Amino acid sequence: MKMNDAIPFLDLITPHQELKEQLCNVFTAALEKGAFVGGAMVEEFERDFALFSGATYCIGVANGTDALRFAIMAAGIKKDTLVITVPNTFIATTEAISQAGATPVFVDVNERTYNMDPCKLREYLEQQCEADPGSGEIIDRFRMKPVSAIIPVHLYGQMADMDAIMENAAAYGLPVIEDACQAHGAQYFSRARGEWQKAGSIGRAAAFSFYPGKNLGACGEGGAVTTNDPEIAQKIRMLRDHGQARKYYHEVEGYNGRLDAIQAGLLRVKLRHLAEWNERRRDAAQWYFELLNDAGLEGLALGEPAWSNGVYHLFVVRVENREELMRRLASENIGTAIHYPVPLHLQQAYRHLGYQVGDFPVAEAAAPEILSLPMFPQLGRDQQERVVNAIRRLMSPGEEVIAREMWAHA
Ligand SMILES: *Cc1c(COP(=O)(O)O)cnc(C)c1O
Predict the structure, then answer these.
(1) Distance, CA 209 to ligand 1 centroid (Å)?
(2) How far apart are the first and last CA of the chain?
(3) What is the number of the ligand 1 atom nearest to the C-alpha of 221?
(4) CATH number for the segment(s) 274-394
(5) pLDDT tens, residue by residue, 335-350
(6) Is the dihedral of CA 52, 94, 231, 160 positive or negative?
(7) Which of 85, 95, 209, 312 most suits a substitution to test ligand 1, by most atoms within 8 Å of the C-beta?
(8) pTM greater than 0.90
(9) Which of 44, 132, 293, 312 has the maximal Cβ count within 10 Å?
(10) Is 181 in the pocket of ligand 1 (CB under 6 A)?
């Protein structure tokens, strides 16, 4: 590796080259069998991914957005209700809510974890909602609509504080759907149960994305729902396949939302390597923490909460002059990205929801300062040293790039 070789933000070439023969065999097998939609390849992957995620059922679907939408619909979330989520997520989370006929309502994230703040969730339910004496439904007093579900997002591959979220959900009789699209294999230590739980096994259902850049990525589009509830599993199997359990007998109107056989076969090959890839991401994160520490920049990176055994989909730092740092890293051939530059409540697409600047101060303060550094399983230690050296040079005294005191890594 020469000193000025490009360090990509993400490497989608090496892992596929390493597995090229096995991946090509999947394609050959599909051509020989003529099996392109449904069939054994999909079922085998579903069985393996359910096992990996610690859930009873896995239903492969076309993408993560479909996974969220089908999970919302199958969990019985009614139209014209409100679904609680966070403003600092990818728009797919809220698109799925709207497409299921509900409306997103936001609660802010915790300033240390960047995931849903259970205290703010509680505050919203206690202060802005009241139980309808007749139906017992939880009604948002300002929006005059019932609240029907909670969708925490395990952002960046770190677990949201699920014990506290599940406790609030139970107190208000609301189902929880995990957006696990960035968290394949992440684990949460439940103090309530005294055990580790896998992302995708905790809520009523969970959504995963297999978009190529995710920790488990297809060579195209893919997604899955995991659940322990046989009825939800059955409903999603129908929703993804035009509302039919038997061909041409349609119980409801559904969607064309299936995972195709070739993608399932490719995902199954890659799934065998996922635990190791996640471990390599954790090692890389640990090395970033050590390098930042040695550079006196230990406050720069997002830490890992004690309850989370994260899978580092992204490695995020926070600086005051983010654009400058990004520009200068780019000038040294180092790729970075922003997840995400504008919180959803301030997006043009959601103007009709009526939110304003100042509504979610934690998410709003983070958005202009967060930067995702190169992170992928094959990232080399020497490459990480180059990244941190570059950051250190740019952040020396007199430079305008100033470290934000983040949650020092425990
Ligand atoms: C990627 C992602 C999705 C959507 O997945 P697609 O497969 O692109 O539809 C949803 N939520 C989050 C948090 C994501 O990162």
Answers:
(1) 5
(2) 32
(3) 7
(4) 3.90.1150.10
(5) 999 999 999 999 999 9
(6) positive
(7) 209
(8) yes
(9) 312
(10) yes
